[in-house]
Amino acid sequence: MVEHLPALQVVLPLVAAPLIVLARSPRFAWLATTAVSYACLVIAALLATRVATLGAFSYALGSWAPPWGIEYRVDALSAFVLVAVALTASFVAPYARRSIAAELDADRQYLMYAMYCLCLAGLLGITVTGDAFNLFVFLEISSLASYVLIALGRRRQALVAAFQYMLMGTVGATFYVIGVGLLYLVTGTLNLADLAERLRGVEDLRPVLAALAFITVGIGLKLALFPLHQWLPNAYAYAPSMATAFLAATATKVSVYVLLRFYFTVFDPAALFDRLPTRETFLALSVAAMILASLVAVFEREVKRLFAWSSVAQIGYITLGIGLENHAGLTGSIAHLLNHGVTKGAIFLLLGGVALRSGAASISVGSLAGLGRRMPLTAFGLVIAGLSLIGVPGTAGFVTKWFLILGAIEREAWWVVGAILASSLIAVAYVWRLVEAAYLRAGQGTRREAPAGMLAAGLAMAGLCVYFGFFTSINVAGASDAASFLLRGAR
Amino acid sequence: MKDDIILRVVAKLLTPFMLLFALYVQFHADFGPGGGFQAGVIAAAAVVFYALVFGLRAGLRLVPEAVAERMLAAGALLYAGVGLAGIALGGNYLDYFVLDADAVHGQHRGIFWVEVGVLFTVSGVMLKLFYMFAGRGGTRDERGGE
Amino acid sequence: MSAVAAHFSYWVTLFLMIAGLYILIARGNLMKKLIGLGVFQTSVYLLYIAPGKLVGGTAPIVAAGFTTYSNPLPHVLILTAIVVGVATLALGLAITVRIREAYGTIEEDEILERDRTGER
What we know:
The complex is a heterotrimer of chains A (491), B (146) and C (120).
Chain A: H1 5-23, H2 26-54, E1 57-60, E2 71-74, H3 76-103, H4 109-128, H5 132-151, H6 157-187, H7 192-199, H8 206-223, H9 231-238, H10 241-266, H11 269-274, H12 278-298, H13 303-324, H14 327-358, H15 371-374, H16 376-390, H17 396-410, H18 414-440, H19 452-470, H20 475-487
Antiparallel strand pairs in A: 1-2
Helix pairs in contact in A: 1-2, 1-4, 2-3, 2-4, 3-4, 3-10, 3-14, 3-19, 3-20, 4-5, 4-10, 5-6, 5-10, 6-8, 6-9, 8-10, 9-10, 9-13, 10-13, 10-14, 12-13, 12-18, 13-14, 13-17, 13-18, 14-16, 14-17, 14-19, 14-20, 16-18, 16-19, 17-18, 17-19
Chain B: H1 5-28, H2 36-54, H3 56-62, H4 65-88, H5 103-134
Chain C: H1 2-6, H2 8-26, H3 30-52, H4 73-103, H5 108-117
Helix pairs in contact in C: 2-3, 3-4
């Protein structure tokens, strides 16, 4: 059975979606979603341990040997991302019941669960597949599902946000397909490993360079690489709480994974980084995101949108490692896929509870006044996750920044070190606005915490921020393995 | 269009043949162009045609919306089920070789059931889309503020 | 001139690609944006399909008397891409219908205006 796990990882959530539609009951939908999310976490963990002990392995779908058939491939990097996605899912799923019940009509709830399962299947599929076109199909499965998840938000702005995200996301995916098409025209193969082999020596052909450009911009749109991030703030701000938490913690991260995969295992990193200004471009864009998006967050009044802008900045940290292109930098980047996932996941899960109790569709910073007294545990969790966002020692965020700074020092890029510190200081400013409102300003209302299930999920994720700050055997060790795997072909 | 006798008679006559043609496209796919996608769209088109002539309500009586929704889910499940059958019989996921003692016949069998699944899903999706777009119109004000 | 003629399909692809993207960006009407998106995606279908055809090649079914076959793989890929395109278009139209119900317009500038003023 163990050898079938790569397929089951994707098939389980994919099968859950039609089952949920058949049953049409919110209760069954929630049970199935939760069961599948936990099963996915177990499968991801099993795959990760297998990769750690036995090395990368592949699965031939339909028993057609690669490169003719579609190959599923699990290596150090994909195993790490699988765990990160499944971990988030296992916190979001139990949270979903109360959250969805509060935000959606009873007759549409099961559809939201079905969409969530499809989105999960798509994200896991992107990560596990070793075929460039299959990757596109999963990319669109997860994207289409996430457009629906966003459009299910309570306010009418959610529709416009979903529409804009849909246009940008589809253009991004189509750019990716154009890139893959050009690579197929040059090499005649779609298997990623086979592509890498056949591209050696022809990196300077114009179609290959054009493919690189199309794939970079296409995936850049999906991962909200500055300045291609315009869709993100509205999409996160107006989506239902559970969808925001899930998408913020997973969707952009998986797109980063696609970029890493193409840059380090398909294209020749030596040619990519030495003959093209890849390093400079990524450093400049990442630093711009870290500084500018953080500054916007400082002046944002709506809390969910504030943290959406903070996400744009944090994606800057993740892409910074690509620009640094050394072991420490990439370790920081890959670890941040998980670290930022749990941090932002915790924040949006807890904010969902705040929105539920306040009854308003949007939460302004001012309306958080007195939150420390009204919802002490929620406010405490928010502060913990906020500290991780800043990168205070003892939290997950610190681990990332430590490795990124090490990577920058190794490159002697002192201005990057300065930018990381400056961005952290700006993060202090926007997190402080929340702390100030929650603890130092008097507010009205009696003490009433969020429902237990929602609160527990949010606090547990906030706890993970601290856990990953002290015990780095999962995030740093996994990321370090993945970084070594990526750099093996390079230097 | 309900009042036009020619349309009504032609629609009644054509609908079964359209469904039959869908089945032909479905099963002839072994020997020529065709398959579940095309057949599913043709089958859905028959119902859409019927609904256009006799009204949406008549179409919904023929294939209720809940049935269309279940069809699209059941088709996807059938497809996934064929894949899981491959695992159960000792092959990989979506392995058709193991579905029969003879590998070529196994491929045949696997593709047949997958195409049946596609037929159900595609016609279900098409009908569901039609019902959802046809069932709405205008802004809330234009509908009389329901 | 021969460079143009020899790469005819690529020129058509490029024209559709740029035209679609232009409509998508330049038009404020949501329906027109979706049309632009459709044209843009169609250009990709052509990008894949056209090179799969070999001059003198026949359908890839092994039969006596034929030695040159066209490449069937692009067709399969694009069939998938078309289904994805249909799903995207359906979702886009569905959201457009909902936007018109909620805002009473599908012009982008009017939607943003109504969000600012809070008008129904």
